[in-house]
Task: structure prediction
Amino acid sequence: MIRIGAAGALLSALLVGGTVTAGPADATTASVGSICYGDLPSQAYDTLDLIDQGGPFPYPQDGTVFQNRESVLPRQSSGYYHEYTVVTPGSPTRGARRIVTGERSQEDYYTSDHYATFDLIDFGC
Result:
């Protein structure tokens, strides 16, 4: 699997017919930022490696369709996004950290606050 950064995800969204808008009035992208791959917590690297390998995953919910009910990520058809747990050390539950992947353009988003905000992972920094 080839992973792309923020610029590649933007280009891919344009090529596959996604809508790209900008500006503070756009609520669907207002909470999507960017994070350098090197700034992720170490457990996120483990999750990304498992995604690339196709598992096995530590939780049965990993790999399930992410519905984007919060409408924070760009709108896509149902089944486009999938979610994976980023283990939180010391947490008795799955915790709040996830990686959400997009299928066609191979973009990866990280959230540390259970879907309130997302950062597109930039693999180029």
